[in-house]
Design a protein that fits this description.
Layout: E1 5-17, E2 22-24, E3 29-30, E4 34-50, E5 58-61, E6 64-65, H1 68-85, E7 91-97, H2 107-122, H3 129-139, H4 143-146, E8 151-155, E9 164-169, E10 177-182, H5 192-198, H6 205-225, H7 228-247, H8 258-272, E11 277-280, E12 287-291, H9 293-304, E13 311-315, E14 322-324
Parallel strand pairs: 5-7
Antiparallel strand pairs: 1-4, 1-14, 2-3, 4-7, 4-8, 5-6, 8-9, 10-12, 10-13, 11-12
Helix pairs in contact: 1-2, 2-3, 6-7
The structure holds (3R)-3-hydroxy-3-methyl-5-(phosphonooxy)pentanoic acid.
(3R)-3-hydroxy-3-methyl-5-(phosphonooxy)pentanoic acid binds next to helix 2 and helix 5.
């Protein structure tokens, strides 16, 4: 084993075509393909070491020891990595986010992407990016996209080895801006893992999957042609389609709060006034306002005028997984 301790950094990503619902919950094989932009500012750094003196897996996120189900999820993921390296050494995992966790910025995406990269490197495994994407997917579906930078597509696939992400275009291809309006930094009530398993209970789910047959190629084309109007129009409707499924699931999932709706209304008002911006939300209340550089600062300032907006994080397209020489412990 060459690397005893390794550290990796990965960006969160904002889905333009969302992943919602699995064909296989255990393997996190999605019902549909999805497309996202990896973010430059909202990122996770994770250091991992394997050593027999740890006795059991120790996990800390943002300075707090992680226990219970969250630690189990990390341990289960590490078991996969240990199996690949033929070892049973316990691990110490220390992770830091540049954003509040569990609030609709996908900390699980950047978290499991960084963990997959750091853990495999620490055990001396040399995986291709595709293999890393497949592995990261087992921790959190959207993590498979965060292995890559820029604009990324996840091919749904029907089996474990067929379901992975690949880069559509590098970060420098297009300087889109994602102004994330944080309307609640609290932890969400129903995590996405549970949410995915409810997707099928919505009568609108089949209609959503049918619509994606058109929307996936349309967003892919809009990225390649840098057509912001097409991208934004479809991304906004697509987010509402996913939330429509969430709202009509049994039990119903409502991820929005009053601030979410206020920002959505404001974005539409600004658009009528000539500001090109569109909104999208993942499984949480925060709103990602997609725009292009000339409008970004004015949008950030206007968002900060909204009482329920606590703060804004202005992101652009970011790099994929990066390995760092300095460690968190
Ligand atoms: O990767 P998960 O299980 O946290 O699911 C992510 C689901 C959404 O963020 C709502 C959509 C997406 O594609 O990122």
């Amino acid at each position: 084993m060459e690397d005893v301790k390794s550290t990796a950094n990965a960006g969160s990503n904002i889905a333009l075509i969302k992943y919602w619902g699995n064909r296989d919950d255990e393997l996190r094989l999605p019902m549909n393909g999805s497309i996202s932009m990896t973010l430059d500012i909202a990122r996770t750094t994770t250091s991992v070491a394997f050593d027999q003196t740890y006795e059991e897996d120790q996990v800390s996120i943002d300075g707090e020891a992680v226990q219970g189900a969250a630690r189990e999820r990390v341990s289960k993921f590490l078991d996969r990595v240990r199996e690949m390296a033929d070892t049973d050494l316990p691990a110490r995992v220390v992770s830091r986010n540049s954003f509040p966790k569990g609030a609709g910025i996908a900390s699980s995406a950047s978290g499991f992407a960084a963990l997959a990269a750091a853990a495999t490197k620490a055990l001396g495994l040399r995986l291709s990016d595709r293999e890393l994407s497949i592995l990261a997917r087992l921790g959190s579906g959207s993590a498979c996209r965060s292995i890559f930078g820029g604009f990324v597509e996840w091919v749904a696939g029907a089996r474990h080895l067929d379901s992975y992400a690949f880069p559509l275009a590098p970060p420098e291809h297009w300087h889109l801006v994602d102004v994330i309006a944080i309307v609640s930094a609290g932890h969400k009530e129903v995590g996405s893992t549970e949410g995915h398993s409810l997707a099928r209970t919505s009568p609108f789910y089949t209609a959503r999957l049918a619509q994606l047959q058109d929307d996936l190629p349309a967003i892919r084309g809009a990225i390649l042609n840098r057509d912001f109007t097409v991208l934004g129009t479809i991304a906004e409707r697509e987010a509402l389609s996913m939330h429509g499924v969430m709202l009509t699931s049994c039990p119903s999932l409502l991820y929005w709060n009053a601030g979410t709706v206020e920002v959505m209304e404001a974005v539409r008002r600004w658009r009528r006034e000539g500001v090109e911006a569109y909104f999208t939300m993942d499984a949480g209340p925060n709103v990602h306002v997609l725009t292009v550089p000339p409008f970004a600062e004015a949008i950030r300032e206007s968002l900060m005028q909204i009482e329920m907006v606590e703060r804004c994080i202005v992101c652009g397209p970011g790099e994929g997984v990066q390995y760092l020489e300095s460690h968190l412990f």
